[in-house]
Known about the structure:
Subcellular location: Secreted; Bacterial flagellum
Number of domains: 3
InterPro entries: Flagellin_hook_IN_motif, FliD, FliD_C, FliD_N
Family: Belongs to the FliD family.
Largest sheet: 5 strands, antiparallel
Distance between the termini: 39 Å
CATH class of the largest domain: Mainly Alpha
Subunit structure: Homopentamer.
CATH architecture of the largest domain: Up-down Bundle
Keywords: Bacterial flagellum, Cell projection, Cilium, Coiled coil, Flagellum, Secreted
Helix content: 40-55%
Amino acid sequence: MAGISSLGIGSGLDLNGLLDQLRSAERKQLEPLTRQVAQQEAKISAYGRLKSGVDKLQNAAAALNDSALYQKLSASVQGDGLSASVSESASPGSYDIAVTSIATAGSLATTRVDSLEDSLTDAGATLDLDFGDGSTYSVSLEADSTLEGIRDTINADADAGVDASIINDGSGHRLVLSSRDTGADAGITGMTFNGLSAGVTLGEDAATARLGKDAELDINGITITSATNTVEEAIQGVTLTLSPEAEGNTLSLTVSQDKEAAKEAVTKWVSAYNQLQSTIGRMIKPGTDDTSAGELIGDSTVRTLESRMVRDLTSSVPGGDFSLLSELGISLNEKGRLEIDDETLDAAIADSPQGVADFFAGDSEEAGMAGVFNATLEQALDDKGMIGNAIEGAESRVDSLKERFTRMETSIERTIERYRKQFAALDGMIAQMNQTTNYLTQQFDALSAQLGRKK
């Protein structure tokens, strides 16, 4: 019999269904590999979250390991209208600052123009500006410019030194020029129009002049002037910023050690450590009836990392006012989290700032507790460190499992193809047998009929 194109046609058996059942049964061999791949990929993801947490903690530890942190100064101001910031070059000190005046920009208005529609200039017209430092500047004006056109031309000129606006005083329109910078030198002192149209009278109105003014202040008896309200380096390393409320007032400025900076850095480090411990806790939790086990339960990488961190936290740091973390009010609780006794830490920073610096930062990169702790985390984060090796190992296992999966899947398909060929042969054989049976039945029926007629 010719080849059968679809299984079961010749025999009437559901051979396709049987083949599907055999395929499903064979593919069950792949399920353990699929589960193992999923487990390893979950581990890789967990290692990534672990690495992120360790990286955040390492950054916090590196900040504690910076000796400049403990030398940082802050500025405190009593009174309104003055703010101050300090740089590394500042020194502690107290200052009385009497502000006589703040810096202002100059302004000057023109005489009135009746209509904004009037053309005011001929070709080649200019506006010449005078400034407090004796300098001048000329703005070229287009022919037939209105007051609004003059305003727009001035504002479009980046070098003009003034901004222009228009004010209606109830009797007419005035062009008002305001210095872009504060201070006496930058203030506008005069303006002259050249090339105005016939019959146009437009010039400065001296009565409206407001000269630019420098800021003037007295710092511990020393008079200081500044063209701007940002006074830099009058006190070394200190920048003062004046606002109108300061004018006519005497204010107090104190530059002192920034105790909050050190405490904030310690708090961030403690918070980062506790967050990492929470992350680890979720990864190593045992499973229950309602929840699955953590991805890294029983993982040696996590146990090693935790062991090394606890070792660093509890080790003694020799040679300073403080030798143990607990002496600064920082301790491990029964849950493995760090806790801060604010009163003890505040007292340590206030009474012995250098001792706190020696404990955390030491006199070299890895001499203090933070330096040792930071080095441990850097080793863990290194490409060939414990986390990197764990990720690499899990990725290698995933690759190996996927290769086994592919090989086994190919083997299964070969087995199924062999079954298919065997079923096709069976289908053909049964079809031939059915055909022979039908033929013999017909022959026996015919013979029986002939014998019946002879009787």
